[in-house]
Write a structure and sequence with these properties.
heterodimer, A: alpha/beta, 6-stranded parallel sheet, 4 helices, B: 11-stranded mixed sheet, 10-stranded mixed sheet, 23 strands, about 25% helix
Chain lengths: ~220, ~475
């Protein structure tokens, strides 16, 4: 843990950041722990671009009431990337909300490992914690493992997780092809629409436009 | 609301003294072997059961492996130290020398009391029972009727004597000797269990069932069951179990192996009602079992249904290896924990063959100070083309001192395979309770109603004989948890 930073949000503070991992040397986040004070709000997005093998691990401690945390990510792995994502979401106090959404494409000979644990402490009542991890497995040599976990010690909570590992829908492809869209284009459109919900959350801005465009280009050029 | 709370409290107090229904002890003369575990004890068990040399070797090999193994610590369980030298590994009711062929009336009475009549005339039509008391099988009913169809249904010990080739062929073929700590222990010291073989193309005309009863103090029960369904056959098998109320913890470490050949179908149902310990968490059974089936041939089908309400600690993951193409498997589970019970249970679906399908429905209910975990593995191997899995794991929390956890593991290495998993955790909503209360249904009854509705999808999969019992059991297990 040496050299790893903790970011602490004071009560009422808010943080919104997008981390683009483009450079193979940039293989993790600049911090590994996030501590949320009361009424604070954190919104973290991670985008793992092609060619980047990374180890993203993040522990979120929600220590103040009425705090909210959103952690989301996209990973695009067309080659021999090895992507590991591990999120520990600790709801230590009542009345907080967390949302996690990770979506990714695994092609080539890539390997994706997702681990996400939500812990709701005893007495952390009125917690709402959601987590989703969805993957598309696009080649014979790619491999995806996912381990979403819930550890709940309070009863008045709403918690759920969902995880899928699947393939592109052939009926959608047929629909598009019967309207003159090539198979290649249809696949690209499917992949773009698959990852797009992750960006929906980011407020509209020039930066968001650039990010979305960069991701779309990466999908178009690599799959 | 305050009035509601008061009534809830009253009900709680009323039922606080609720007792475990099957907690009695049968007073029969029993034969014990000395406490402890070593090669001599294993030789003694083997000679008591008049086993052939190969089986003794099998046991000794397992024991030597077990000695090198460590108790698994990965489960979300707080298991107290178990002294394996402080357990009696074999206990059997003494045979009456005057009537060696007949069942001891005392034992017959015991099983009667448990609702398992051993007399064929009195028995539930359509259910054949193998009744196991501590380390031995007391009797197996309807054997003749079944034998007419070529079906073998007997105790494991008898199968070793009468059908050694079949036993030898399939024993440890699904759960290898060194599979895990408890499976190795079981392989070394297993006592009795059931053996059943359904020949090619035969549809078993009745439900087969085993009933396990722990009676003796200071003992452990090490059941071993082997079910083989040959090509195109069908069998529905049920398992039930109970134990007396005691302050000590008793160990039940079972191994169940199921082999399903081409186009055969096996339906395996369990209602697990071992003594769960008292309201302060004293006593209860440690239920550490390995259950695994293999869908060996194409088109084979294995379904697991379990209702888990008993045991102080449960460590149990009925699993299926989907080897044959187009084979399928299901896992339906309701696990209820109350007071200080702990359960870590779930399933593994290993997809090897093409077009294999599996479905997991798990409903956890925790109350009191209990901890209830679902743990599962869905694995799609590279050859599992077009394989499909769907898992749904829901947890219901009753009270704010209990825990509900979900630990699925999903691995996919085939691009045509699709895996879906979802899990939710919630409590009984106040709206639902209000709706019931408003219609004159009291809080306790309302909870029972809601829980039964919540578990319906699983309960409906149980054979009729079990479904009624299971519903009652759910209600009893949760009594006193509202408030």
């Amino acid at each position: 843990m040496e050299g790893k930073r903790t970011i602490t949000l004071a009560p009422g503070e808010s943080l919104q950041r997008v981390f683009m991992l483009r450079d193979p040397a940039e293989n993790t986040l600049p911090f590994s722990r996030l501590v949320l004070g009361a009424d604070s709000n954190a919104d973290i997005t991670v985008v793992v671009m092609p060619g980047v093998s990374c180890d993203v691990s993040l522990t979120v401690d929600i220590d103040g009431q009425n705090a909210g945390c959103t952690v989301q990510g996209v990973y695009i792995c067309p080659g021999s990337e090895n992507v590991r994502i591990a999120v520990d979401m600790n709801h230590n106090v009542p009345r907080c909300t967390s949302r996690q959404l990770f979506k990714g494409l695994a092609g080539g000979a890539s390997r994706v490992d997702f681990y996400g644990k939500i812990i709701v402490a005893q007495d952390a009542q009125k917690t709402e914690a959601y987590q989703e991890n969805h993957n598309l497995l696009l080649s014979d040599d790619a491999k995806v493992n996912t381990r979403p976990q819930l550890e709940i010690y309070a009863d008045d909570v709403k918690c759920s997780h969902g995880a899928t590992i699947g393939r592109l829908n052939e009926e959608e492809q047929f629909y598009m092809r019967s309207r003159g869209i090539s198979l290649q284009d249809a696949r690209v459109l499917q992949m773009i629409s698959f990852v797009s919900p992750v960006f929906r959350h980011i407020p509209e801005s020039a930066v968001k436009g650039e990010i979305v465009e960069e991701v779309e280009r990466a999908i178009r050029n690599n799959f | 609301m305050t009035m509601d709370e008061r009534t809830e409290k009253d009900i709680l107090q009323e039922i606080a003294g609720q007792e475990y229904e099957h907690g009695f002890v049968t007073d029969v003369e029993q034969e014990f072997i000395p406490k402890g575990l070593n090669e001599d004890i294993i030789r003694l068990i083997s000679s008591k059961k008049q086993e052939p040399e190969w089986l003794l070797e099998f046991r000794l090999d397992a024991f030597r492996r077990w000695q090198k193994m460590k108790m698994p610590a990965w489960a979300h369980l707080d298991i107290p130290e178990i002294d394996f030298q402080d357990i009696i590994y074999y206990a059997a009711p003494k045979k009456d020398s005057d009537r060696p062929k007949e069942i001891d009336p005392e034992l017959e009475k015991t099983f009667d009391k448990l609702g398992i009549p051993l007399n064929e005339r009195a028995a539930l039509a359509g259910v054949a029972v193998d009744a196991v008391f501590d380390s031995v099988s007391v009797t197996t009913t309807f054997r003749k009727a079944l034998a007419d169809k070529g079906i073998i249904f007997c105790s494991f010990s008898e199968a070793v004597r009468e059908h050694p080739d079949l036993v030898r062929k399939y024993l440890a073929s699904v759960v290898p000797v060194g599979d895990n700590f408890y499976a190795a222990l079981n392989s070394a010291v297993f006592s009795d269990g059931s053996f059943c073989y359904i020949p090619k193309g035969v549809r078993c005309p009745m439900e087969l069932s085993s009933y396990f009863r722990i009676n003796a103090k200071g003992t452990g029960q090490f059941e071993r069951t082997l079910i083989v369904a040959d090509e195109g056959s069908y069998v529905s098998y049920m398992e039930g179990c109970t134990a007396p109320m005691r302050d000590e913890n008793q160990l039940h470490a079972a191994v169940v192996e199921i082999v399903v050949e081409k186009d055969a179908e096996v339906k395996y149902s369990t209602v697990q009602n071992w003594y769960p310990g008292d309201a302060q968490g004293r006593g209860g059974i440690f239920n550490f079992v390995t259950k695994r089936g293999i869908c060996k041939g194409s088109g084979s089908h294995l379904s697991w249904t379990q209702v888990e309400t008993g045991s102080a600690i449960t460590w149990k993951y009925p699993s299926t290896i989907l080897k044959g193409d187009n084979s399928s498997s299901e896992f339906y589970s309701v696990a209820v924990t109350n007071n200080f019970q702990q359960a870590d249970t779930g399933t593994k679906m290993i997809h090897v063959g093409k077009n294999t399908r599996s479905r997991i429905i798990s409903k956890g209910i925790s109350a009191g100070h209990s901890q209830n975990s679902y743990r599962g593995l869905v694995k799609m191997l590279p050859g599992a083309d077009n394989a499909r899995n769907y898992s749904q794991c829901d947890s219901l929390l009753i009270g704010d001192r209990c825990g509900a956890h979900t630990f699925p593991n999903i691995e996919n290495a085939n691009r045509t395979a699709v895996v879906e998993h979802e899990a939710t955790t919630s409590k009984i909503s106040e709206d639902q309770l209000f709706y019931c209360n408003q219609r004159g249904i009291g809080p306790e009854e309302a909870v029972g109603l809601i829980v039964n509705g919540y578990a319906r999808e699983v309960l409906s999969k149980l054979p009729m004989e079990f479904a009624v019992e299971a519903q009652k059991l759910l209600q009893v297990s949760l009594e006193g948890s509202v408030g």
